[in-house]
């Protein structure tokens, strides 16, 4: 069984794979050729030893992953942009910053505001937290369903499936090739979709200890506790993704695996080829360093 764990994400017409200290982005060009960009990085958890502490490491690893993901997405988007209209780092950062603000609005502010209205009719904090949690999950599912109707997003979901198939292929010890990758599932327990769902479950449990403070205070508490929620969720995903994980952790990942039915699709051979190219580039870089 391979000792190293690889992860990645789908980008525009391609896949980014990540190793311990490098990433590779492989993109299928309009002429059919595959363009690959490789990038070395120094993990913050290695650079600053105190960041390796459990729960702390998750927050900083996720933040660094977001930055690397932005760079991968920028590269893939620029492959299909007109020269004078290429996306700059600032433009993409602004876009993602706006998306984060909207996420806080959708998953924190609006649910908390609705609960503020109905709490006069429900005495149980547990019930109110469950209702708030169901609202958050419902918003997430509706969002995924709505964007999945866009042709470009359908392609991204296929590349997402290709990423998972190829990683599952690698972790099986079978030769890394299209014929083998096709046999594997488009689902994976370490997927970011799982992470989002576990974040919501952890937040429901954690926020149940804070009663029902005033609306503004509740929103501020939600935002302030996001690093803790992210850190705990990261550890759960990390455990669930291990082959010898306790059954409890594996069961915790099951709802996220079902949710991946919405965020992954069956890829074609050419998309699997791109994902394999990306992973092979990462592995080759690790051998040479």
From TrEMBL:
Q: Which domain of life is it from?
A: Bacteria
Q: Which UniProt keywords apply?
A: Membrane, Transmembrane, Transmembrane helix
Q: Which organism is it from?
A: Halanaerobacter jeridensis
- Any stretches that span the bilayer, and where are they? 55-77, 89-114, 126-145, 191-210, 216-237
Protein name (database record):
Uncharacterized protein YqhQ
Transport listed as a keyword: no
* Pfam families referenced in this protein's UniProt entry, alphabetically: DUF1385
Lineage at the top is: Bacteria, Bacillati, Bacillota, Clostridia, Halanaerobiales
